[in-house]
Design brief:
It contains 14 helices and 16 strands. With about 450 residues, the protein is α/β, with parallel strands linked by helices. The strands form four sheets. An eight-stranded mixed sheet has the order 3-2-1-4-8-6-9-7, with helices on both faces. Strands 11-12-16-15 form a four-stranded mixed sheet. A two-stranded antiparallel ribbon has the order 5-10. The protein is elongated.
Length: about 450
């Protein structure tokens, strides 16, 4: 090998080394860049995963906040409704306080004039009826106003009734505003009976628990009262206090039509709640208020499970007259039983009368003596036979259908409630027939209950 050829080979070898070196130099940055790219991609992937997790957490928290906000909005709405309700109650209380102050009730209490009973007229939407009722009450109430403060309790917002009530300075106005929906228990029932029951409970709770009355006399907005109405209830209150077997004092007799009554001094005990002008005490309301019915409160009071063997005092001659032909009961029985009622017009001096005979133990004996003196009568044509017998008579009935048949002959109420005929005492219904004769309709086990053989 010559020298030139060797040099050439050496030069070529050097060039290859230079190329390799250059390639190596180029590879180093490339590898570095690739490593940086890989590192950046890994960091980006981690950050992306963290971002996704953060987003998911934010979404969960957002949903949680939305749920909490929805709950709080519901609570806010409920609180707002409660606030509105309380505002209405406060408004009514403020109006009542102002009314009491205006009418001198504060002075009455300050002068230690303790009321015997509150008198409340239950009203709704009959302004003309209410005016007639108020005038009748004020005719006899003004001289005893400190003993019998008068209240009008209106159910609803009839403007004419409210205006009429507020036009009298001698009374205190209360308004029951009930916006709760009514759900009847049976199809076809009238909502009115449910609203009436709610109103009665509200008004009696107000008078007993807020105004602290010991007794309340309940009237309706279609009634007139007798001249001795307040004296009658004054005497009845004393009976109510000392005889706990008496549940209510009533001014009404279901068989009080003109042809069936005679003596305005005569009183009876009855197992049938009469209603239509009645007085009860706070101790009785403490028992009744917690279980007050949703509707048909008067028939509810006639259930044996509620009067629990206690009786009601009623007069022979009514101390109230019901002129309400139009109302929630659609004038039921009005022409036949209500319109002919005799309203007492005699000023009885109840303070001078001894009513102790009406106490339970004494009254059983008293009534038994009346029954014993009555002439027994059997068979058909009871009314005709009774007409031809001098003095009191007793007519026996076997069961409800037999009672209804006999009652139709005389023209008295045929209706029963929970096994008790209207006005009955231990199964005996008493009324006048061609006065002063008494007729006693006697149940199958009545004589046994009185110890009569």
């Amino acid at each position: 090998m010559n020298t030139a050829e060797g040099k050439t080979k050496v030069n070529m070898g050097n060039r290859c080394c230079d190329y390799r070196y250059l390639l190596l130099l180029a590879a180093v940055p490339f590898i570095y860049i690739q490593m940086r790219l890989f590192t950046a991609q890994s960091e980006y992937a981690d950050r992306l995963a963290d971002s996704i997790e953060s987003e998911n957490q934010c979404t969960r928290q957002t949903r949680l906040f939305i749920d909490q906000i929805s709950q709080q909005q519901g609570q806010i709405l409920a609180l707002e409704e409660e606030r509105k309700h309380q505002d209405k109650e406060c408004g009514q209380l403020r109006a009542l306080v102002q009314d009491l102050e205006r009418k001198g009730i504060k002075k009455m209490v300050g002068d230690l004039q303790v009321p015997a009973a509150a008198v409340v007229v239950m009203a709704c939407n009959r302004a003309d009826y209410l005016e007639r009722t108020i005038k009748s009450i004020l005719k006899y109430q003004i001289p005893v106003a400190s003993r019998y403060p008068l209240f009008i309790s209106q159910d609803g917002s009839d403007s004419l009734v409210k205006k009429k009530a507020l036009s009298y300075d001698q009374l205190t106005y209360m308004q029951h505003l009930d916006y709760e929906p009514v759900h009847t228990e049976r199809p076809g029932e009238l909502i009115a009976y449910y609203k009436i029951a709610r109103h009665y409970k509200w008004a009696l709770d107000k008078l007993f628990y807020e105004h602290k009355f010991d007794k309340v006399i309940i009237l309706e907005d279609d009634m007139e009262i007798a001249p001795d109405f307040f004296d009658y209830f004054e005497a009845g209150a004393a009976l109510l206090d000392r005889d706990k077997s008496i549940m209510v004092i009533s001014s009404w007799n279901d068989n009080g039509q003109k042809q069936f009554v005679h003596d305005p001094y005569t009183l009876y005990r009855s197992d049938f709640f009469p209603g239509l002008g009645w007085m009860l005490s706070i101790s009785m309301w403490d028992e009744l208020s917690p279980k007050w019915p949703k509707a048909y409160w008067d028939d509810w009071l006639r259930l044996k499970e509620n009067h629990r063997g206690r009786q009601f005092i009623r007069p022979e001659v009514c101390r109230t007259y019901n002129f309400g032909e139009h109302g929630s009961s659609m004038g039921q029985f009005f022409k036949q039983y209500l319109e002919p009622i005799r309203l007492n017009d005699v000023q009885v001096d109840w303070k001078s009368m001894d009513l102790s005979f009406l106490e339970e133990d004494k009254y059983v004996k008293y009534f038994a003596e009346l029954l014993k003196k009555a002439t027994p009568m059997h068979g058909a044509d009871a009314a005709l036979k009774a007409h031809n017998i001098e003095g009191d008579v007793r007519v026996f009935y076997r069961d409800q259908s037999d009672f209804e048949y006999i009652a139709r002959q005389f023209g008295i109420f045929e209706e029963w409630k929970d096994g008790v005929p209207r006005t009955a005492y231990k199964g005996v219904v008493v009324f006048r027939y061609h006065p002063p004769r008494r007729v006693f309709l006697v149940g199958p086990d009545s004589l046994q209950q009185f110890g009569i053989r």
